[in-house]
Each structure stands twice: as structure tokens, then as C-alpha cells.
Design a protein that fits this description.
Helix content is 79%, strand content 0%. The chain contains 6 helices and no strands.
């Protein structure tokens, strides 16, 4: 069992010969990316500009921390919004990675497949973040900033790196268990005789 089965086992595609089955397989593979892109498009509207999110987020912060948030609200609100960029596009990159990982399942080498899927996920995130900021530059209460594209890509890179390390750790443990099992078999066979 490879690390792909451990990490994405519940999403493993089934092989079948029918055209409709292949279409369903592709939809299952890419629908999460489409949903994330649609969420990003909705969040890129004038309704989610800083002027519209400040009051609801302030009420939420006051609910948890009391009225003391007023003194530093502008910087706190900015931090919340930038954290949303970082985490939102980081999550988008992970969802993109999953789709590319499934699509590239025919590759012979696991590490090469993993690197390709990560690279394509980061490229997709860059393109999505760029399109998002370009769109926002045309809205009256939003600004399109390349610094946000960089922040989005940084979030994607960090979360992809964490996933990469996790998958490598799982793969390393499996190889260590397999080596240990190979060393135990001959010793067990000698004692059984």
C-alpha cells in the first residue's frame, strides 16, 4: 500500500471501461477544485470587501475577546483578512494537489508523481490567485495587489510542503516496516522448524 492510499485512499478512482464511468471519475476528481474556485469567485465580489467584513468580524471578535479589540481593530482586521488569503489559497492548493495526484496515477515513480502534482498545484494556485486579484482590480471597493498573489502562493507552498513531508514520513515508515518484516521472516522460519 502506497502513501497515496493512506492519504487519499477514500478518493481512489475505480477502473472501468465505460465512457460514463470515466466521466464520473473525472468529475469526482476535479469537482472539489471547481467548488473551491467558485468559493474564491464569490469571495472576490464587492460583498466581501474590507468595508463589508469589518463590522461582522469586529462583532465576532468582541464576542470572544470583549470590547478591548477596538484599540487595534484596523490591524487585527487586516491580519484576519491576510490569514484568510494564506489559508484559503493554501487549502485550494491541497485540493488541486489531490486532483493532480489522482490524474497522474499512471506515473511509475512515486516521488516524481508527487513532485509533478505539487508543482502543478502551485501553478494552478498562482493562476487562480492572479485571476482573483485581476478581477478585484475592477471592483470599486476592492484592490488587486500582487502582494496578495505572493501571500496566496506562499500559503500554498507552505501547506504543500507540509503535505509533502507528511507523505514522505508515511512512505518512510512503510518501507521501514517492510524491511523489518523481511528480517523477521527468516528468523521466524528457523525457529518454526
Amino acid at each position: 500500500m502506497s502513501s497515496s492510499t493512506v492519504v487519499f485512499g477514500i478518493y481512489a478512482t475505480q477502473t472501468s471501461t465505460g465512457r460514463s464511468a470515466r466521466l464520473q471519475e473525472q468529475i469526482r476528481t476535479w469537482l472539489p477544485v471547481l467548488v473551491c474556485a467558485m468559493v474564491c469567485a464569490v469571495e472576490s465580489t464587492p460583498y466581501f470587501g474590507a468595508d463589508r467584513t469589518s463590522a461582522p468580524l469586529r462583532r465576532l471578535a468582541e464576542m470572544f475577546f470583549g470590547n478591548g479589540v477596538d484599540a487595534h481593530w484596523a490591524s487585527t482586521h487586516h491580519l484576519i483578512r491576510k490569514t484568510g488569503h494564506f489559508m484559503g489559497f493554501g487549502f485550494f492548493s491541497l485540493v488541486s494537489f489531490r486532483s493532480f495526484w489522482i490524474t497522474l496515477q499512471g506515473m511509475a515513480f512515486q516521488l516524481l508523481r508527487q513532485l509533478h502534482a505539487h508543482g502543478l498545484a502551485l501553478l494552478t494556485t498562482f493562476l487562480m490567485a492572479s485571476a482573483d486579484e485581476f478581477h478585484q482590480s475592477f471592483l470599486p471597493n476592492r484592490t488587486g495587489q500582487f502582494s496578495d498573489v505572493l501571500l496566496d502562493c506562499y500559503g500554498a507552498a507552505v501547506l504543500c510542503f507540509v503535505l509533502f513531508l507528511g507523505m514522505q514520513a508515511v512512505e518512510g515508515r512503510k518501507k521501514a516496516r517492510a524491511r523489518a518484516a523481511c528480517h523477521l521472516k527468516p528468523a521466524f522460519a528457523e525457529t518454526a522448524n
